[in-house]
Design goal:
The complex is a heterodimer.
Chain A (H helix, E strand, L loop, with lengths): L4 H31 L3 H6 L27 H31 L7 H22 L6 H17 L15 H30 L12 H33 L8 H20 L7 H23 L12
Helix pairs in contact in A: 1-3, 1-5, 3-4, 4-5, 4-6, 6-7, 6-9, 7-8, 8-9
Chain B lengths: L1 H15 L1 H15 L1 H4 L3 H24 L9 H30 L14 E7 L3 H11 L4 E6 L5 E7 L2 H26 L1 E8 L3 E4 L8 E4 L11 E12 L5 E12 L1 H5 L3 E5 L5 E3 L2 E17 L5 E5 L3 E2 L7 E7 L7 H4 L3 E9 L2 E4 L2 E4 L8 E9 L16 H5 L3 E10 L3 E3 L5 E17 L3 H20 L3 E9 L5 E9 L6 H13 L23
Antiparallel strand pairs in B: 1-23, 2-3, 3-22, 4-6, 4-21, 5-7, 7-8, 8-9, 10-11, 11-12, 11-21, 13-14, 14-15, 15-18, 16-17, 18-19, 20-21, 22-23
Classes of the chains: A mainly alpha, B alpha+beta.
The structure holds protoporphyrin IX containing FE (HEM).
C-alpha cells in the first residue's frame, strides 16, 4: 500500500495552519473575555447584545443587529468565532487528506487520533455556542485544544503510513472514531465544569464568567450527549478486542482507565440526581472525568505498555 | 431481635440510598485504578516479580494486599458485590413504583400554576370547554386527564416521557445482567496457548497437556474440552520498509464435529482480526517467530536435525533466542549419555547485520538468516527433576561445571562448525512457527446482548425528558376566559424550555386579547430548570 506523499504533505500543512488559526482565535477570545464588561453590568446596561437569547429562548442572530453599538470586545469575539470555524474547516481538510494519502481511516495513530479528538471538541464548542451565550469562553476551550494539537503535531507526530495488521479492521473505523469523538465532546463539559468551580468559588476575579447556571447546563448537556457515545465506543472496543486479542475484556491498562472514566461520568450523572451532590460536587466529578480522559490518552499510551501500544502482534 | 431487625433494615436502607451508590461508584473507580498503574499477574507475571524484587517490602506489602491481582482481589470483589446489592435494592422499589405509575392517571392540576417553573397565560373569549377541547387536540400523544373544578374552571393535566423510566430501568437491569454474564463466563471459560510449527504442525484441543499454557475458569477441570484439530500448513508475513508488519496470514486446515470421524480437513485463512470459530471455541493467530534448523553430524557419522522454536526478544526485528538440544545417538547408558548431550543456544537474526563479530537483526523477514551460537556439551539436566525451559539451558548445570561451552561462532545459512571431537553442526536456515490461542467463553453473546441493551436504555433515558404540562381555563365574570399553562420537567434535563414555549404559544394562540396583566402574558421563563 503506497502512501501518497503529496497529499500527506498538504495534510500536514493544513494541520499546522489550523493550529495557528486556533491560536489567534484563542487570543481574540481571551481579549474579548478580558475587555468585556461583567455579565451583570451588561444586563443593567440594557440589551446591548446584537442577537442572542430572546426572552422566549429562541436564538435570533442578527435580528436586532445594531452593528454600530457592538463593543470592541464583542467584535474581537466575533472575529475569534469566525477564525475558529475556518480552523475547524482546515483541520477537517487535513484529516480527510491524510485519509486519502494512506487509503485508510485517518485515525490509526496517536497524532491522528488526537486531531480527530480536538476537532470534535471544536465542533461541539461551535454548536453549543449557538445555543448558549458563552462565546467569550472560547479561549478557555481553545487553549487546551491548541496545546493538545501542538503536542500532537510535534511529540506524537507520525508519518502517514499504513497501519499494522491488528488495526486493519473496520472496527478501527468504528471504535476509534466513536471513542475519539466522544472524548473530544467530553473536553467541553470538562472545561465548563472547571469554569463552574471557579465561578462558584466566590472569588471576585471570576465574576466575568457567565452564570454558574449556564455553565452547569452546558456541562450537563454535552455530557449527556457524549456519555452514551462513549459507552458505544467502549463496547465497540470490546467487540473488536474479541476478534483481535482473543477476549472482549482483559483489564488492559487502556481498557481499565476507560472503564474508570466511564464510572466517573456515571457518578456525575448520579450526583446531579442526588440531593446534596448537585452543584460543586457534581462539577468536581465531571472535571475528574475529563482529567481521566486526558490521562488515558497520554499516560497510558506513552508510559505504560499494553495491547493498546500496538507493538507487534503478541 | 427487634434491634437486630432494625439494624438489618437500617443497613439495607443505607446500602440502597443513592448516596451510598455514589460512594460505591467512586470506590469502584478508585479500586480499578491500581490495575492500570501496577503490573498485573494476569497480564504479565514476569513484570510483577520484577516489580516486587525492585521494591522490597513495599512490593511485598502490595502483593499481600492483592494489588497485583486487582480484579480478583477480595476488596475489589467486595466493592462490586456491594454496588450490585445496592443496585438491586434500588431497582426493586423503582420497578414497583414504575408499574404503579404506569397505571396511575396524571396528577391533579396544581392550584397555582404561576408557581410552576414554566408558566404562561392569556385571556380569550372562547369558552373553557372550547379552550380545553383545542388543548386536548394539541396534546395528542400525551397522557392526559381532563377535569372540572368546583369553581367552573376546566383543566387538563398531561404527562409525557414515561419511556424515560423504561429506558432507565432497562439500563440498570442490563448492567446487572452484564455483570452476571461476565462472571459466569469467567467461571465456565478457558484459554490456552500453544506454539505450532508452520510446516504442517498439528494441534488438537483434546486435552490440557497439548497446550504450552492453559488458564481454566473456576469450573473448568480441563477434561471436557471442545474437540477440534488444526494443522498449520503455511505462514507468511509482509512488512513495510521500516519493518512494521503489514499482514500476517496462516494457511490452516481444521476439523471438528463429524469431520473428526471421517477425516475431512477444511481450509481456513487464519489472520489477525479474523479468528476461526468452530466447535464453540475460537482460535486466534497471536504471534509468530522462527525455528532455526540445525543438522548435527556426530563423529560416528550419524546425523540428527533439531527444529525447536526460538522466541523473539525484539518484537520489531524478531531477533530471537532459544536453545536447541540434542541427545547423542546410540548411547544406551544414561550415565554416559548425560555426559555428551549437546545444546545450541544464542541469537537468531532473520535478516543478519554484523557489527564486527556482533550479530543483530535488521528486519523481521527471514531474508538472510544467521545465528550467533554457543555450543554446550555435557549434562543438560533433563533428568535433574528441575523444570526445564525449552528456550534456555539450565544455568545451574553450567555453574556446577556439568555443562561446558565448547564452541562459539556465527553461522550464516549453510555454514557449519566443527567441534573438538569432530562433531559437525550446520545451520540450515529457518522455518516459521505460529502461536495460537484457543478461547472458550460460553456467555459472551449474553454479555454482548446486555451491552446493547445498556446502550439502548441509556440513549432512551438520557434523550427523553419526563415532563408535565397543565392547562386551566377559568371563566371570568365578564364572560371571558383566562387560560393558564404551567409546565414542569420532572427530571434533570435541560431543554424543556423550548418545547414548553412552543406548546404554550399554540395553546394560547388566537386568543382575542392578552390577560389582565399584559406584561405577564407569555412571560415564559424559558430556561429555568427544575430539578
Ligand atoms: C454499576 C452501577 C451503576 C451505574 C454504572 C449506573 C449508571 C447510571 C447512569 C449512566 C444513569 C444515567 C441515566 C439518567 O441520568 O437517567 C443512571 C441513572 C440513575 N441511577 Fe444508576 N447506575 C448504577 C447504580 C445505581 C444504583 C446502585 C442506584 C440506586 C441506589 C442507581 C439509581 C439511579 C437513579 C435513581 C437514576 C436516575 C437518575 C436520573 O433520573 O437522572 N443507580 N445510572
Amino acid at each position: 500500500m503506497p502512501v501518497n506523499a503529496t497529499l500527506a504533505t498538504y495534510s500536514d500543512w493544513t494541520y499546522g495552519a489550523a493550529v495557528a488559526i486556533y491560536f489567534f482565535a484563542a487570543v481574540l477570545y481571551l481579549c474579548e473575555a478580558a475587555f468585556a464588561r461583567p455579565a451583570k453590568a451588561r444586563e443593567l446596561a440594557g440589551a446591548v447584545a446584537a442577537g442572542g437569547k430572546q426572552a422566549d429562548g429562541t436564538w435570533t442572530p442578527g435580528l436586532v443587529a445594531q452593528p454600530e453599538r457592538r463593543s470592541r470586545a464583542e467584535r474581537l469575539g466575533r472575529m475569534g468565532a469566525a477564525l475558529t470555524v475556518l480552523g475547524a474547516l482546515l483541520q477537517a481538510t487535513s484529516l480527510v487528506l491524510r485519509g486519502f494519502a494512506t487509503e485508510r481511516a485517518p485515525w490509526g495513530n496517536m497524532y491522528e487520533y488526537g486531531s480527530l479528538l480536538t476537532l470534535a471538541a471544536v465542533v461541539t464548542w461551535l454548536v453549543l455556542s449557538r445555543t448558549f451565550d458563552v462565546r467569550k469562553l472560547g479561549g478557555f476551550v481553545l487553549v487546551p485544544i491548541v496545546i493538545l494539537m501542538f503536542l500532537g503535531g510535534t511529540v506524537l507526530y507520525a508519518d502517514a503510513a499504513p497501519v499494522q495488521p491488528a488495526l486493519q479492521s473496520y472496527w478501527l473505523v468504528v471504535h476509534v472514531s466513536v471513542i475519539s469523538v466522544s472524548s473530544g465532546v467530553l473536553l467541553v463539559p470538562g472545561v465548563a465544569s472547571v469554569l463552574y468551580l471557579l465561578k462558584t468559588s466566590g472569588r471576585a476575579r471570576f465574576t466575568k464568567l457567565p452564570d454558574a447556571d449556564v455553565l452547569d447546563r452546558l456541562a450537563y448537556r454535552s455530557t449527556v450527549f457524549a456519555f452514551p457515545l462513549f459507552t458505544i465506543g467502549i463496547i465497540c472496543g470490546a467487540i473488536w478486542a474479541e476478534a483481535a486479542w482473543g477476549r472482549f475484556w482483559g483489564w488492559d491498562p487502556k481498557e481499565t482507565v476507560a472503564f474508570v472514566s466511564w464510572v466517573v461520568f456515571a457518578a456525575y450523572l448520579h450526583a446531579r440526581a442526588t440531593a446534596g451532590w448537585r452543584g460543586r460536587p457534581a462539577a468536581w466529578i465531571n472535571s475528574l472525568g475529563f482529567a481521566l480522559t486526558v490521562f488515558n490518552l497520554f499516560f497510558i499510551n506513552l508510559v505504560t505498555t499494553g495491547l493498546h501500544s500496538y507493538a507487534g502482534v503478541g | 431481635m427487634r434491634t437486630a431487625l432494625a439494624f438489618l433494615r437500617n443497613t439495607w436502607r443505607g446500602l440502597t440510598a443513592m448516596r451510598t451508590a455514589l460512594t460505591l461508584l467512586f470506590l469502584l473507580a478508585l479500586g480499578a485504578m491500581p490495575g492500570a498503574l501496577l503490573p498485573q499477574r494476569s497480564l504479565n507475571s514476569f513484570k510483577v516479580d520484577e516489580y516486587i524484587a525492585d521494591n522490597g517490602w513495599w512490593g511485598r506489602f502490595l502483593d499481600r494486599l492483592q494489588f497485583f491481582d486487582v480484579y480478583a482481589s477480595f476488596w475489589f470483589s467486595a466493592i462490586y458485590v456491594l454496588l450490585f446489592v445496592s443496585l438491586v435494592g434500588c431497582l426493586l422499589p423503582r420497578t414497583w413504583e414504575y408499574f404503579k405509575q404506569m397505571r396511575a392517571k396524571p396528577v391533579l392540576t396544581p392550584r397555582n400554576l404561576a408557581r410552576m417553573p414554566h408558566h404562561a397565560s392569556a385571556g380569550t373569549t372562547a369558552s373553557p370547554r372550547d379552550v380545553i377541547e383545542r388543548a386536548e387536540r394539541r396534546l395528542k400523544g400525551w397522557r392526559t386527564v381532563t377535569r372540572d373544578e368546583p369553581d367552573g374552571a376546566r383543566t387538563i393535566s398531561a404527562e409525557r416521557g414515561f419511556l424515560r423510566e423504561t429506558g432507565n430501568l432497562v439500563f440498570h437491569f442490563s448492567l446487572l445482567g452484564l455483570l452476571i454474564a461476565f462472571a459466569l463466563g469467567k467461571m465456565l471459560g478457558y484459554e490456552g496457548q500453544v506454539i505450532v510449527q508452520a510446516n504442517g504442525g498439528q494441534f488438537c484441543n483434546s486435552g490440557v497437556y497439548n497446550y504450552d499454557t492453559f488458564r481454566p475458569g473456576l469450573r473448568v477441570d480441563g477434561t471436557r474440552l471442545n474437540q477440534f484439530c488444526v494443522r498449520v500448513d503455511d505462514f507468511d508475513a509482509t512488512y513495510l520498509h521500516n519493518g512494521q508488519a503489514e499482514s500476517f496470514h496462516a494457511a490452516i486446515h481444521y476439523q471438528s464435529g463429524a469431520d473428526l470421524e471421517n477425516g475431512t480437513w477444511r481450509p481456513y485463512p487464519l489472520e489477525v482480526n479474523s479468528p476461526l470459530r468452530t466447535a464453540g471455541d475460537r482460535l486466534y493467530l497471536l504471534g509468530h517467530g522462527y525455528t532455526p534448523l540445525f543438522t548435527v553430524t556426530f563423529p560416528n557419522g550419524e546425523t540428527r536435525t533439531g527444529a525447536t522454536q526460538w522466541r523473539p526478544v525484539n518484537q520489531v526485528t524478531l531477533a530471537s533466542e532459544g536453545a536447541t538440544k540434542f541427545d547423542p545417538p546410540n548411547v544406551p547408558d544414561a550415565e554416559q549419555r548425560r555426559k555428551s548431550q549437546l545444546a545450541i543456544t544464542g541469537l537468531l537474526a532473520p535478516t543478519a547485520v554484523f557489527q564486527g563479530e556482533l550479530l543483530d537483526s535488521a528486519f523481521p523477514a527471514a531474508n538472510d538468516p544467521a545465528v550467533a551460537i554457543d555450543v554446550y556439551r555435557g549434562d543438560l539436566g533433563t533428568d535433574s527433576g528441575r523444570g526445564q525451559s525449552i528456550f534456555s539451558i539450565d544455568q545451574k548445570m553450567v555453574q556446577d561445571g556439568k555443562l561446558t561451552k565448547v564452541a562459539r561462532q556465527n553461522l550464516t545459512q549453510g555454514e557449519q562448525l566443527t567441534l573438538d571431537d569432530g562433531t559437525v553442526i550446520r545451520f540450515d536456515g529457518v522455518r516459521d512457527w505460529v502461536s495460537l490461542q484457543v478461547s472458550h467463553d460460553p456467555t459472551q453473546v449474553w454479555v454482548l446482548l446486555f451491552s446493547v441493551l445498556v446502550i439502548l436504555g441509556l440513549a432512551v433515558s438520557l434523550s427523553i425528558k419526563r415532563r408535565r404540562v397543565w392547562v386551566r381555563a377559568t371563566p371570568q365574570e365578564d364572560g371571558r376566559t383566562v387560560v393558564e399553562v404551567g409546565g414542569l420537567a420532572r427530571t434533570d434535563q435541560a431543554g424543556y424550555g423550548e418545547e414548553f414555549t412552543a406548546l404554550s404559544r399554540d395553546l394560547l394562540a388566537d386568543r382575542a386579547e392578552p390577560a389582565d396583566r399584559p406584561a405577564d402574558a407569555l412571560a415564559v421563563r424559558a430556561d429555568k430548570e427544575d430539578s
